[in-house]
Specification:
Layout lengths: L12 H27 L6 H15 E5 L6 E3 L1 H17 L6 H31 L3 E3 L8 E3 L19
Antiparallel strand pairs: 1-2, 2-4, 3-4
Length: about 160
């Protein structure tokens, strides 16, 4: 027969749910701190890699002038190389990126591929019209076009708002 003075164990279901909620809250806080720590690990992250490769592609699409000559240099082969590298990054990181990283990479690749097509068309037309000339450049694969107007011509617009110097 149970003793009337013996302690009784009372299980409170509210207490259990409160403890479970606290546990989940602590788990979320730990995950958030881990994510913040991962972002703060160093000055270089995934977005930086994508940005650097994208910038290189844009440089060879003529969007940045050569600092020495002041002329835009277009090398479709090099631009394609950097765009293809981003494609490799995309395929090799499938399933391992955050949603933000995946969207940024997808958007960057889409824009670069579109610009590549537009610049390719513009270069072909400009070469055909004699406004720019293809030329070999110290070991560069394929030809490089300098975006210089022919004497007596004014600089024309290039895709994406780029104008020839």
């Amino acid at each position: 027969m149970p003793d009337a003075d013996a302690p009784k164990i009372i299980v409170d279901s509210d207490w259990k749910s409160q403890a479970q909620q606290e546990k989940e809250k602590l788990s979320q806080q730990a995950a958030q701190k881990q994510a913040e720590a991962a972002e703060a690990q160093g000055p270089v992250g995934f977005e930086d890699l994508v940005g650097w490769l994208g910038t290189q592609a844009l440089m060879y699409l003529g969007y940045f002038p050569d600092p020495q000559t002041g002329q835009a240099v277009v090398s479709l082969e090099y631009a394609k190389l950097y765009i293809d590298m981003l494609g490799v990054v995309e395929s090799k990181t499938t399933g391992n990126l955050s949603q933000k990283e995946k969207e940024g990479l997808t958007k960057t690749l889409s824009q670069l591929r579109s610009e590549f097509v537009e610049v390719s068309k513009a270069v072909a037309k400009a070469v055909q019209e004699g406004r720019i000339k293809p030329m070999a450049r110290g070991g560069a694969p394929g030809g490089v076009a300098t975006a210089s107007p022919m004497p007596g011509q004014s600089p024309g617009p290039m895709p994406g708002g780029l104008t020839m110097p």
